[in-house]
Amino acid sequence: MTDIINQLAGLDGTEFVALRERRSDAVTNAQISFQALLEPENPGEFTYAERYAVAAFITGISQADRAAQFYLDLLADEFDDALVATVQGAIAAGTTTGPFRDGNFTVFDASSALGPRLAAAFDFAHLLTFHPKDASPAAVGHLDVAGWSADEIVSLSQLISFLAFQQRVVHGMQVLAGAAPQLVSPQASQEHASQAVANPSWEATENILIPEVVKPAKFVNHSLGWEPWVPAMAKADLTDEHIDALIKPERADMPYFRLLARDPQALKARTLTDLDIFYNTEGGLARAERELAATVASRFNGCEYCASVHQARAKEEGGDAAAIDRLLDEGITVDLGSSLWSAIRDAAVALTATPFAFNDENVTALREAGLDDLSIIDVINSSAFFNWANRLMLTLGEPNVPKRFR
């Protein structure tokens, strides 16, 4: 079966295919994630047309032209030209560069040819793609009003977040292989600006949870809790398939994993991708440095929960605790104390900001800091994966400071 990431990055026939395969579970399960989210055997009410349309929209507005054409072709193969034209129009209206925060929400007319479900999905996709930190219970309520069920909201969030990962791996590998495309400035900036609103007037609905939490006032170097906005599955309702998807049975006690278990195939593939990226230590980047990339991406995206988890893991693996605390306290521009950590930080920031910011200079800096190509692939994978993880954490719930730390 054709590997989609290799295909989109143009890696077939190069030595980089074999290098990616050094993380074989990650490669295999990224492909399974594509199948689970784009072409599941039983798509339910979240139709193939909607899945292909969302994928084409996200890659199109992100200016990943090769990927956008790939997903538009999938859409055209199965559905009529009118839908393809409608999606192309939405791409033209939504194309921009990110990230940005505090407003500038792009919204689409529910009475247009998109219809209310797809218009709401595109609103949500634009939010998660360019400013996930601005997500809220109201944004999830907007999907609920448009007819998206709890299961479908989880699958849609997984799809959007997976594509953030896929695009970053594709672009990172293109740069590493010396074949990166040139980014063209958006041509529809005026059209996009006319679609932007400071307040989209979305509201949380009765189906959306508003948990009582104490939000962290800053990035912290201790553990945090997390509470969902979309109801998690009850532990008693978990089937053998759900338990299998959790990988670790103790995760049945965690609301986050019981929520993602609403789409068990996507959850299992995502978890196995994660484990190989971070725990496969057959050559390549040291564990502390992989966790550093995860922490940097989380710090940049504003995900306090993920940053709290992975700063601790970086320290446990022997990382410079003082440098990590400076990163949490002062931000991504802080002095990390070594050329290696600075190069990893710069690469993770570039891939997170918009994958096209990652360039030959980042690869050169990583190589000059002593990394071989497998290690650079680990930097790309680790950074890209947390653009998947952060989007789920930021848009399906919120962190909570445990009582012992208040």
Question: What are its keywords?
Answer:
CMD-like, Alkylhydroperoxidase, 2 domains, oxidoreductase, mainly alpha, AhpD-like, peroxiredoxin activity, 406 residues
Can you walk me through this structure?
By secondary structure, the protein is an all-alpha fold. 60% of the residues lie in helices and 3% in strands. Strands 1-2 form a two-stranded antiparallel sheet. A two-stranded antiparallel ribbon has the order 3-4. Helix 7 packs across helix 9. It starts with a helix and ends in a 6-residue tail after the last strand. The model is unreliable at 185-194 (pLDDT under 50). Pfam families: CMD. This is Alkylhydroperoxidase.
CATH architecture assignment of the largest domain: Up-down Bundle
Content of β-strand: under 5%
Q: What's the CATH topology label of the largest domain?
A: AhpD-like
Q: From the alpha carbons, calculate the radius of gyration and give it in angstroms.
A: 20 Å
Low-confidence stretches: 185-194
Query: Which strand order does the major sheet show?
Result: 1-2
Quickly give the structural class: mainly alpha
The biggest sheet, with number of strands, parallel, antiparallel or mixed sense and barrel status, is: 2 strands, antiparallel
What oligomeric state is this?
A: single chain
SSE series: HHHHHHEHHHHEEHHHHHHHHHE
Our count of helices gives 19
Domain Carboxymuconolactone decarboxylase-like: 264-344
Protein name: Alkylhydroperoxidase
GO molecular function: peroxiredoxin activity
Organism: Corynebacterium stationis
